[in-house]
Amino acid sequence: MLDQGFSQEISVSETSNAAENVLYDVMAKADDEFSFNHPLGDDHHVYFVEPETNLFDDRKSVLLVRFVEPTDDATYLEDVCPTSCEMRERHGWSQMTMIAHKRTWFRAPEVYDFFDKLDVLGFFDDFDQVIFTGSQACAHAASVFSVAAPGSTVLLFSPVATADPKQADWDPRLSAEIHADDSPRYRNPIKLLDAAKEVFVFFDPREKLDAQHAAMFEQKFVTKIRCRLMGKDVSYGLSQTDSFIRVVEAAGQDTLTAKSFARIYRNRRRDRSYLRRLISATRDRSTPVITGVAARAALTKFDARYFRNALNTAETELTKLGQSLPNVATRKETVSENVAA
Predict the structure, then answer these.
(1) In a domain, 1, yes or no
(2) Rounded to a whole number, what is the distance in angstroms from the first to the last CA of the chain?
(3) CA neighbours within 13 Å on the CB side: how many for 23?
(4) CA–CA distance from 264 to each of 96, 255, 261, 270 (Å)?
(5) CATH of the domain at 258
(6) pTM for the full model?
(7) What angle do CA 49, 53, 58 make, to 5 degrees?
(8) Domain end marker among 215, 235, 269
(9) What is the residue range of 226's domain?
């Protein structure tokens, strides 16, 4: 498939930095017989793996396309495999991972040419379903390059709707360097998403900039899903309880809706970081009853000092007011989440 017109192997000796070394460690986990990897200029890499087709001939063929960018060190590449590999092993999905070794927004001629080449080869036509996904700047890339596979499903987490500072001068994260290349190719994510079958936008409405970007996706086929208290990187928050994998899996099974996500999202109550953010939000609102209820619920899952202190403080404040916490948990103690929102 992808080996048409491209070199199939790159020796480890060609790697030039720590990030690439981690990349090859990750790729070593996959079966080389079914793998393809290729550099796209100096700053990008594509990694493709397909399953053994004889094991999954009766299943729908799905391709998961992910976009990954650097964190503060090379460890970001260690997350290239888990979600995609699990979908490959469990459901027989193929995976393509686009990797940037620095913040580029995937704005590079080599990346454009690669997707043009896939279009010419009819590569995406070989799959019953193609899923594009990315977070933040990578969501921008997933949006624009999804046009290469009309009818695809696009999962955008905390997306940036435009990287052009002229169109979003309210976002200080954007800078003129993003559009240093003045190529019109793969440029307007909102317009290019018109080729998609359905788009899901996941964001935390408490994050002002993310909410403003999410509001820019106005097409009828876009489903906006609010993930309160997930913070600036919703995909990371969801991954802490395996919810990210379940979302991707549901998309591939055509069962992802706002309602089905609500069931998946219940897993956040098993995330210590989420519970801490929840309690912090209730404390900011000076609501000791709600704080106490949330802290008590958190302590049933985690014996953490922060939660104990929050509960003790809430009970002390209530005692001064001549009040106390309810003796019975109120409807799974979810009222605190509604108030915090």
Answers:
(1) no
(2) 47
(3) 29
(4) 25, 12, 5, 12
(5) 3.40.50
(6) 0.83
(7) 130
(8) 269
(9) 12-269
**DSSP bridge partners of 200:** 155, 223
pLDDT of the chain, 341 residues: tens digit per residue = 555 444 333 333 333 455 555 555 555 554 454 467 788 999 998 988 887 665 556 678 999 999 988 764 444 455 555 555 667 777 888 889 898 888 889 999 999 999 999 999 999 999 999 999 999 999 999 999 999 999 999 999 999 998 888 888 889 888 755 555 667 889 889 999 999 999 999 999 999 999 999 999 999 999 999 999 999 999 988 988 889 999 999 999 999 999 999 999 999 988 888 999 999 998 888 789 999 999 999 999 999 999 999 999 999 999 998 888 987 554 444 444 544 44
| Structural contact between residues 278 and 297, judged by C-beta atoms closer than 8 angstroms | no
Place of tokens 């624009």: 144
Q: Give the number of other Cβ atoms within 10 Å of residue 314's Cβ.
A: 24
Question: In this structure, which amino acid lies at residue 36?
Answer: F
In a domain, residue 7? The reply is no
